[in-house]
Design brief:
By secondary structure, this protein is α/β, with parallel strands linked by helices. Helices cover about 45% and strands about 15% of the residues. The strands form 2 sheets. It has a 7-stranded mixed β-sheet, with helices on both faces.
């Protein structure tokens, strides 16, 4: 049976309200550009779903994909907590969990599609890369980071865990000590420390992450396609069972009154640094 969409022409260009992508010479550049800092909510998720749906048609002509951000403040600060909070308070607890589970499963389907894409994916990161933004970056095969980039998982201070698949995927790449440090302390980690831990494959000078990623992508286009696909599938297994367990744990924790109250305080805060609860780790 032919795969659905196999005979459709590749979607080489897309311009949405929260992101855009463009194909050129075997490389797709997907640029996040959603104010204020690429929060992943209904809008951005819907457009990421469109990209995930285009992967099959892009795959035969694509060697690499670069995910980057046009926002000056950074790559992404993660889930749209304001939207999550506003949706949660409208519903009784049982309906709240059902709606949240649908949303999180949508994110996981997109994440799994990007994770399993047969071309090589690169995240070009600058500025803040927090929570769900970090989870988006770790989907990629390679992370190129500006030396001024900052990484972190602030979720525990709000009473829940990362829910977009980040912990199971990080365990493929870095040691448990580093993951626990990110998770349990809520501290941000400088790009140099993330590089030493193995999270980042390449450190770039300030403002040069995208340029370095483009250079790497051009190199990738020179290699044998069949070998590349086989190598990626072999070296990067997707932890489906752990991801399913994460969905249920996230929904269970999120539905507690203490979490809703924490989200209320976060959403109502006018602190411009509220995504950085602790001073950056050296």
């Amino acid at each position: 049976m032919k795969k659905k969409g196999r005979n459709l022409p590749p979607v080489k260009e897309f311009r949405g309200k929260g992101l855009r992508w463009e194909w050129r010479d075997g490389v797709v550049e997907l640029t996040l550009d959603h104010e204020p800092l690429n929060e992943i909510g209904t809008l951005l998720l819907g457009e990421l779903e469109q990209f995930a749906a285009a992967i099959d048609t892009l795959a035969p002509i694509t060697s690499a994909c670069i995910i980057n951000s046009a926002r000056p403040g950074g790559f992404s600060v993660g889930g749209d907590l304001k939207e999550l909070y506003n949706n949660a308070v409208k519903l009784p607890p049982k309906k709240r969990v059902a709606g949240l589970r649908i949303f999180i499963k949508r994110i996981h389907r997109v994440a799994n599609a990007i994770d399993a894409a047969p071309f090589i994916t690169l995240a070009a990161v600058h500025g803040l890369c927090m929570g769900g933004g970090l989870e988006l970056a770790v989907l990629c095969d390679l992370i190129v980071a500006d030396k001024m980039a900052r990484f972190g998982f602030p979720e525990l201070r709000l009473g829940f865990i990362p829910g977009f698949g980040g912990i199971p995927r990080l365990r493929r790449d870095v040691g448990n000590g580093f993951i626990r440090d990110l998770l349990f302390t809520g501290r941000t980690v400088k790009a140099e420390a993330a590089h030493q831990a193995g999270l980042i494959s390449h450190l770039a000078g300030e403002g040069y992450a995208l340029e370095v990623a483009r250079s790497m992508a051009r190199q990738i286009t020179k290699f044998d396609i069949e070998a590349r696909v086989a190598a990626k599938k072999f070296i990067k297994p997707i932890p489906y069972q752990e991801l399913r367990e994460e969905v249920e744990l996230f929904c269970k924790l999120f539905n507690r009154p203490a979490v809703i109250e924490s989200l209320r305080r976060f959403v109502e805060s006018d602190d411009p640094m509220k995504h950085l609860p602790v001073s950056p780790k050296q």
